[in-house]
Design goal:
Length: about 70
């Protein structure tokens, strides 16, 4: 494998890990009332690569209500 191809694959793999990690942390901390749909389904969905974490971060979270703790 060429150096450029390896660098691209490492970059894409790193981005996938970061997106999955960010989605998992957000899903863990966010209460059910601030999520569209069921949390259990989103847990399964974020591990469908590469679209699951992107879908959760774009559509799975409710917006405009602010974070309450």
């Amino acid at each position: 494998m060429s150096g450029r191809r390896r660098a691209v694959l490492l970059g894409l793999g790193s981005a996938e890990l970061v997106l999955t990690g960010a989605a998992a942390v957000d899903l863990w901390r966010r209460p059910q009332r601030e999520i569209h749909g069921w949390k259990g389904i989103w847990w399964l969905g974020i591990f469908v690569q590469p679209f699951g974490p992107i879908a959760y971060l774009a559509y799975g979270r409710r917006r405009g209500r602010g974070r309450r703790r």
